[in-house]
Design goal:
Length: about 150
């Protein structure tokens, strides 16, 4: 499978699970039908800029995405966004994003990193992200910005 699909899955896995080691990440990816090696995972971790942080839930270290509001969104995230998003549409004051099955969580995380203005909140399912905005016009502006990323 493509590198961007694999990296998208990595972002999804670490956002929903406490992954402590590269071996755990390899196992989780293999359960999702990605045939990869530890060396490939090591490169992906570096490219995605993942770090280990102390989990407040378990007290163990886990992989996480670096949260830095001053840092622009990496090209890797934009590539993941382009690969995973099927459509971005406006529905009154909502922005509805359809994704490849299983990718909504990763896309929702990328949207958070984009720091778009006026977003009141975002929720996701398996293949859909819904962004709540204060008005129809702000929803349309957000849809236009996100569609420009896909192009």
């Amino acid at each position: 499978m493509a590198r961007s699909a694999r990296q998208s899955k990595i972002l999804e896995i670490i956002s929903t699970n406490e992954i402590e080691t590269q071996d755990e990440l390899v196992s989780a990816l293999k359960q999702s039908h990605f045939d990869i090696t530890q060396a490939t995972i090591s490169r992906d971790i570096k490219e995605l800029g993942l770090i280990k942080i102390l989990s407040s839930e378990s007290g163990k270290y886990k992989y996480a995405v670096v949260e830095n509001s001053n840092q622009s969104v990496s090209n890797k995230y934009i590539s993941v966004f382009k690969e995973a998003v099927i459509s971005v549409k406006e529905a009154q004051n909502l922005c509805v994003i359809k994704t490849i099955k299983g990718m909504a969580s990763a896309i929702c995380g990328i949207i958070d990193k984009l720091n778009l203005e006026n977003i009141l909140g975002a929720v996701c399912g398996d293949d859909t992200v819904m962004i709540i905005l204060p008005s129809n016009s702000t929803a349309l502006n957000t849809v236009n910005k996100l569609n420009n990323l896909v192009l």
